[in-house]
Amino acid sequence: MTPSVSLLLMLLLGFSQAHPLMEEGSAAEIPVNEDHTVDITTRILTSNNVTDEILLEGDLLAPRTRNAMMCWSQNCLWRKASNGLVMIPFTMSSEFTSWERQKIDYAMNTFHSKTCIRFVPRQNEYDYISIENKVGCFSALGREGGRQVLSLNRQGCLYHGIIQHEINHALGFQHEQTRSDRDYYVRINWENINPQMAYNFYRQNTNNLNTPYDYSSIMHYGRTAFSIQYGRDSITPIPDPNVQIGQRQGMSYWDIMRINMLYGC
Ligand SMILES: [Zn+2]
């Protein structure tokens, strides 16, 4: 190999490692090389700015059948098969490219490897998740019955953390900062929130599964969610205001534990 050829190869190799999102690289590279300077909720809320769906708390589809935002009774959980696995049928829109499908598969794989949840291509099951490229990133809360849309807009939502966030909603999990006991852990700065958006911060009657409040949950809003003005925080952790909130990467230890607890994995 001549020096110029090996130099070229080194350059190409270096380039492919620095820009794996432009390549059909191995799935393991995906989350590591994403841009993590923006937290998940900021991205979700930005993508959802233009949607005309009725969304609660930014990215939850208003329930069709339930009259409250609650999902911890058996009838909104996905059913467990006799082999102990929770099989969740899904379909994926043909609008997604193979690279985009790979990202979605990769996000699902964490559920497969750490919990008893298994996403399986739908055959003819009645209840299933339809993953679609709608305007915005959103999901229903828990199993709704029949076909339920989980939207991952191709432009704004195909990030590892966002995909997992929306899947977690479909499993029945709400936002961490609306937990029933959240006032012990965060202060909601109502003066920095548009009054029309205040409902997004109402406390919910959540089932916390006796798990600690988790600032690092993938379901926790970032500190400026729904803020009226750049630089003004809507959520401040207490007592230590400097605790990091608003996840950027993927499910936390407790996110995974809670799935296992809720579904008795
Ligand atoms: Zn959400």
Major sheet characteristics:
5 strands, mixed
Mean pLDDT: 84
The fraction of residues assigned to DSSP E strands is 5-15%
- Cofactors, ions, other ligands: zinc ion
Give helix and strand order, one letter per element, not per position: HHEEEHEEEEHEEH
Rg of Cα set: 20 Å
Q: Give the neighbour order of strands across the main sheet.
A: 4-3-5-7-6
General description of the model:
It contains 5 helices and 9 strands. It has one domain (40-205, 212-263): Collagenase (Catalytic Domain), CATH 3.40.390.10. It starts with a helix and ends with a helix. It has 265 residues and is α/β, with parallel strands linked by helices. The protein has helices at residues 3-18, 40-48, 98-114, 160-171, 253-262, and strands at residues 55-56, 60-61, 86-92, 117-121, 128-132, 137-138, 147-152, 186-188, 235-237. The chain has a 5-stranded mixed sheet. Helix 3 (98-114) crosses helix 4 (160-171). The protein is globular. Residues 7-32 have low confidence and may be disordered. The relative contact order is 0.16. It binds zinc ion. Zinc ion binds next to helix 4. Residues 58-59, 165, 169, 175 line the site of zinc ion (ZN).
SSE arrangement:
Blueprint: H1 3-18, H2 40-48, E1 55-56, E2 60-61, E3 86-92, H3 98-114, E4 117-121, E5 128-132, E6 137-138, E7 147-152, H4 160-171, E8 186-188, E9 235-237, H5 253-262
Parallel strand pairs: 3-4, 3-5, 5-7
Antiparallel strand pairs: 1-2, 6-7, 8-9
Helix pairs in contact: 3-4
The structure holds zinc ion.
EC number: 3.4.24.-
Protein name: Metalloendopeptidase
Domain Peptidase M12A: 67-265
